[in-house]
Design brief:
Helix content is 76%, strand content 0%. It has 302 residues and is an all-alpha fold. The longest helix is centred in the first third of the chain and has 27 residues, at 72-98. It is globular and about 45 Å long. 48% of the residues are buried.
């Protein structure tokens, strides 16, 4: 879920913003672990529908003024973004349920950042920065390395994560070009509830509701909804309000790194040389795609 912070010059609380945003990336990385554990005891679509329905209802309790200010046009556009978000989350959770390696999966998911300006060019006629055309082949080379690790065979989970990255890149563009004068909090409530409303009914038709719910599975579900979704959003929003969007985006690039480290610690995952090369190339693509912002940051323009 992409949340844009305020623009303008660098606010005075830069250290507080950095700490909040780093904490956000750590919670996001933990969300991968929480979700994977929850999938051991419940079907993927039921899980993702419940996770975001719970998170959306809780967030709505803290967002009444913003929701009351939502007019019909804003609601319609927010629902469009929410539909794309639901589609992306379905692909993401299916990827997670078929994935055997969370570390590489997190880097594949991050490829959506590189695709955002490409989609902006294709669908909205925007002119992407020149760095996009250097970042894109790096990201594709990284994905190829991850595919070659199993003998040039793209796993089903990898396809799902790549599809999710593409949908999220499209969603970001639709959000930026179509949604206007809608508060970030109201938009996020609609996005979260859209996942529950659109995913849960078909999930109940094609998946089997668990006959028993163990305490650990319920714990993983609630932690995913309340910590990795609702709390993560609130911290991210506050952190972004204290700094510039470009600075926040650079810190948020840490999520796949933390996810790979968390998976290595929690699941004892290891990476082959080819996997490391693939993840390294994708991360390099993220850096290249943000190069203008990085140069501005270290050039004192933040």
């Amino acid at each position: 879920m992409s949340v844009q912070g305020s623009g303008g010059g660098a606010p005075p609380h830069r250290l507080e913003a950095d700490l909040l945003l780093v904490l956000t990336t750590l919670i996001a990385a933990a969300g991968w672990i929480l979700s994977k554990e929850a999938l051991a005891g419940m079907p993927p679509l039921i899980f993702i529908g419940l996770r975001f329905a719970i998170a959306g209802l809780v967030l709505a309790m803290f967002s009444q003024p913003q929701l009351r200010a939502l007019d019909r046009r804003g609601l319609r556009n927010s629902l469009l973004v929410g539909t794309l978000f639901a589609g992306g989350m379905v692909l993401w959770i299916l990827g997670l349920s078929h994935s055997s390696h969370l570390g590489e999966a997190s880097f594949i998911s991050s490829m959506g950042i590189v695709m955002v300006p490409v989609f902006a060019r294709l669908f909205f006629g925007d002119r992407p920065p020149a760095t996009t055309w250097f970042a894109l082949p790096l990201a594709l080379a990284g994905f190829a390395c991850l595919s070659l690790d199993g003998g040039f065979e793209v796993e089903l989970g990898q396809w799902f994560f790549l599809g999710a990255a593409l949908v999220f890149a499209l969603m970001f563009n639709v959000n930026s070009h179509i949604v206007r004068n809608v508060s970030v909090r109201a938009l996020s409530v609609v996005q979260m509830l859209a996942v529950g409303v659109l995913v849960l009914p078909p999930a109940l038709l094609i998946e089997t509701w668990p006959q028993t719910w163990s305490a650990p599975v319920l714990g993983w579900l609630l932690a995913s909804a309340l910590l990795a979704t609702t709390l993560r959003f609130l911290l991210q929003l506050h952190g972004q309000s204290l700094t510039t969007p470009s600075h926040a985006a650079l810190i948020m690039m840490l999520e796949p790194v933390w996810t790979a480290l968390a998976a290595a610690w929690w699941f004892a995952e290891t990476m082959s040389a080819l996997q490391l090369a693939g993840c390294g190339l994708i991360f390099l693509a993220l850096v290249v795609s943000r190069w203008v912002w990085i140069r501005g940051l270290f050039g004192g323009r933040g």
